[in-house]
């Protein structure tokens, strides 16, 4: 079984495809496209050129997912779409145009996923994780018991 995660960030849209092997998901494909959504935001709204660029990128990724027979895809967005005034219009357009569902992560959810991703690859007992993105930064303080503050 193949699953994909598509992360719509302020500067890049990132696609990672995983395949289930021996009861574990293994990363098999990673692609990243620099879209620069943050540069298409004016007056707290994503401008039409930004929506066009995002739609084209997600369409390319969706075609790849279909060609590779990926069974489940998870689309999520962070600060670039989280803070804009026309968020609902953008999400509705992408949903209708591409037949996809995009979840907008809160700052807390983004920090939580950063923490879980870090724990999958590095086993720090305690520390501070800082995700410096193109539109926001998340800070997660953790110890051996989990997250202390996010």
Automatic annotation (TrEMBL):
A Pfam family per the record: Ppx-GppA
InterPro entries reported in the protein's UniProt record: ATPase_NBD, GppA/Ppx_hydrolase, Ppx_GppA_N
Signal peptide residues on this chain, from the entry's feature table: none
GO annotation terms (biological process): regulation of transcription by RNA polymerase II
Similarity section: Belongs to the GppA/Ppx family.
This protein's name: Ppx/GppA phosphatase N-terminal domain-containing protein
Residue ranges annotated for the Ppx/GppA phosphatase N-terminal domain, each copy included: 17-144
């Amino acid at each position: 079984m193949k699953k994909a995660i598509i992360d719509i960030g302020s500067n890049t849209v990132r696609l990672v495809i995983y395949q289930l092997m021996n009861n574990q998901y293994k990363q098999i494909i990673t692609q990243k496209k620099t879209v620069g959504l943050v540069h298409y935001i004016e007056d707290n709204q994503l401008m039409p050129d930004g929506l066009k660029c995002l739609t084209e990128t997600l369409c390319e990724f969706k075609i790849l997912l279909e060609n590779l027979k990926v069974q489940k895809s998870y689309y999520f967005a962070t600060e670039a779409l989280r803070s804009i005034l026309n968020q609902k219009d953008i999400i509705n357009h992408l949903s209708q145009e591409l037949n996809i569902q995009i979840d907008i992560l809160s700052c807390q959810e983004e920090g939580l996923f950063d923490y879980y991703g870090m724990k999958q690859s590095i086993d720090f007992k305690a520390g501070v994780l800082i995700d410096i993105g193109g539109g926001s930064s998340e800070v997660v303080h953790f110890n051996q018991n989990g997250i202390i503050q996010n």
